[in-house]
Amino acid sequence: MTSVFTATTLKWKKYKKLGAGSYGTVYLAGEANSLFLGRSFAAVKSAEFRHSKETIKEAEFLKEVADNPYIVRCFAEDISIENGKEVYNMLMEYAPGGTLHDLIVAYNVKGSLMPESHAAAYACMLLSGLSHVHRRGLVHCDLKPCNILLFPKINGTDLLHLKIADFGLAKHVWEEDRVELLRRHRGTRVYASPESIMFGMHGTATDVWSLGCTILEMMTGRQTWTDEEMWDLYVEMVQGPSSYIEEQCSAKTPDLKLVDLKDNPQRLRCKEDLQLTISTTELRGA
């Protein structure tokens, strides 16, 4: 079943669902008036209006970084009535090539790796886009291959045109990170920097770390860390500052103790224990 909505004076129709995330569902949309985008399709990110705060914020971020060729464009916003409910819609460029993750997987399926020259060119595109984001005072916070879109090949080359997308977790540089017990980490852990995991710190350096992980994945065809390696890394990160952080936590919350991993390694038996330990360390900045 399709739904029809208008953006300004232009009519659009939603077709198939392309994907869904934490803050909205993305659809392929066709335009009834080609004067708006000058192309046949767009991607529309939709969320029920009463739950659309993060999606609206993402649209604002995209407007702030709109004038860069390596960042996906947001063309318009609209509110439609679908199944009796108000729905917020954000219209963006449609990437027919999928994501950088899809491209990496395609190389893996063929049993080959991305040519180093291509990886270098794509790294330059991403650096250009990311530096623009940082100059505008924003931090992406979730840079990874799945959030990098592929557009048609650049004229006269075999290179695709990459654009950074999905600013749903982005923030302004000046925004303070909220430190909350057992809160969800901002971003994807396998691409996250140590300080963002341990202390919930998300600055421009966090994006640079994530970009490094992404470039390495382009060149090797695999993520920087496996699940098992991430687990070992978490343990090592928690063990290092544990005594200092426990001292800080005890001073603020005497009844809350940090697991002493060095003296009691048997206490760390599952990811839930580790998550509690990591969350407890975040009290350092409370």
Describe the structure in your own words:
The protein is α+β, with helices and mostly antiparallel strands and 286 residues long. Helices cover 35% and strands 21% of the residues. The strands form 3 sheets. Strands 1-2-3-4-6-5 form a 6-stranded antiparallel beta sheet, with helices on one face. Helix 3 (116-135) packs antiparallel against helix 5 and helix 6 (227-239) crosses helix 8. The protein is globular, with a radius of gyration of 21 Å.
Structural class: alpha+beta
* Unreliable spans: 1-7, 241-245, 251-286
Helices and strands, in N-to-C order? EEEEHEEHHEEEEHHHHH
Beta-strand share of residues: 15-25%
- Helix count from the secondary structure assignment: 8
Report the principal-axis shape. Answer: globular
Helix content: 25-40%
Mean pLDDT: 77
Radius of gyration, whole Å = 21 Å
Binding site for ATP: 45
Domain Protein kinase: 12-286
Organism: Coffea arabica (Arabian coffee)
Family: Belongs to the protein kinase superfamily.
Task: Give a summary of the structure in a few sentences.
With 286 residues, the chain is α+β, with helices and mostly antiparallel strands. The protein has eight helices and ten strands. The strands form three sheets. The chain has a six-stranded antiparallel sheet, with helices on one face. The chain has a two-stranded antiparallel sheet with strand order 7-10. A two-stranded antiparallel ribbon has the order 8-9.
Provide key terms for this protein.
286 residues, alpha+beta, two-stranded antiparallel ribbon, Mitogen-activated protein kinase kinase kinase 20-like, serine/threonine-protein kinase, Plant_MAPKKK
